[in-house]
Every structure is written in structure tokens, then in C-alpha cells.
Amino acid sequence: MAYSVRLSGTVLSSLLYECANSKIDIEGFLLGVLSYKTTLTNDDSSEQAYERREDFIIIHGYQILKEKPYDNQGNINKTLVQAQQKDLTSIVGYFKFRRQTDVSLSVRDQLWMQSYSRNIPHGCIAIISSTLSNGLTDKSTHSYEFAFWDMKSADTRLPIDITNMTESTLGYKNFMSNTPYKLSEESSNFALATISPSSLIIKQYDSMYQQSIQALRAATHRFSLKRAEFHG
């Protein structure tokens, strides 16, 4: 199953801010849910529409770790993971920030990916790097690069969708929320991961539409009364 990574510009800028202001290289968990959306698609070769499914890793936030949850061979430390993040269902990936390096996976990264995948069923890994923009002449300006990989395949780079920057809400029936869900006591991230949020977004837009129509009717009624008084 091929995933796409979705995160908001706010989450991304916050993470890059933490990287920029850290005195050492940092790493930690990416938190969020799995979700999907289905659309009806037509192609030129057939008049019949078919259903197309897209799967997403939606990142709502991150958790910077004080201690790495794996050893030098990349083996996961389950006790340490659970001590730092009790809700394992909210973990959808891992990030590593390294200065002055290429955005690529090291041997240790790949060993960690294998161990992660054996214990946490889904996820991605992000490598973030910063370099001086103008070499040694300007040490105050840095450029950042990052890439995401599927945790189960070091050869599979995942496409990234930074929401609120490339997506229009005009096609609201295909719009997918990137905001965290409100959980009830009976809810869980696992349950939400199997539900497409599209219906929730449609209900919100329909409610806004109904409120707008009611406000327009009320304004029209008031205008009619004022007009009748004026001509009376």
C-alpha cells in the first residue's frame, strides 16, 4: 500500500523552528493518524467511472525525544518507547534532524526502520538536514531539506502534501481535513484511521451553507419590510 504524507504548514514550520534552535541534532516521533479518501474517476478509454482510493499518513504533530528509542544496531527499546509515548496508535512515523548532511538514509537508519516496522505496524521516516545557504560567508542563513520514506521500504520515497498551501477547498467534497480529530472516551486513533473524514467536512460545509441561506432570507425579509414602510 502506497501512502502520501500530509501535514500542515504550521506543523512543518514548527518542526523546522525546533530544528533551527536546537543546540544538537534532534529526533523523535511523528504523531497523527492514517486515513484515506475515495473518488470517482473517468478516463478516456472508458465511459464508466471507477473508484480510486488514496491512502494518507496525516501528521498532526511531533514529539522530540530526550533519549533515542533504539540501540547502536537499530534495535527498538520497547520499554523506552512506551515510557515516552504511551499511546502507540498515535505514532505514524519518526524524524531525524542532522546538520550538514545529505538527505539520505544511513545503514543505522535502515536497521531502525526494520525494527520499527516489526513493532509498529505503519509509519514513515523523515530525514531533515540544514546547510549554510552561502557557504562560510553568511553563517546566519540556512536552507533546509527533507524527505520522507516508507518505514517498510528504504527504496520508497513518499510524496508530501503540505496542506493549506496547494489545496483548494472549492472542491469541498474531495477536501480532507488535516486538523486533529476530537476524540470521545470511546474513540481511538485506530478507529479513526479506518474512517474517511470527508463526510464530516461535507456536513460542516452543508451547515455553513444552510446558515448562510437563512441569514440571506432574514435580510431579504427585513429589506422587504423597510421597502413597504417607505412606499406606505
Automatic annotation (TrEMBL):
| Origin: domain of life | Eukaryota
Output a single Gene Ontology CC term carried by this record: nucleus
Q: Report the Pfam families cross-referenced here.
A: MPN_2A_DUB_like
User: Which Gene Ontology terms cover its molecular function?
Assistant: polyubiquitin modification-dependent protein binding
Q: Which PANTHER family match?
A: ABRAXAS FAMILY MEMBER, OS07G0540200 PROTEIN
What is the name of this protein? JAB1/MPN/MOV34 metalloenzyme domain-containing protein
Species per Swiss-Prot/TrEMBL record: Mucor circinelloides f. circinelloides (strain 1006PhL) (Mucormycosis agent)
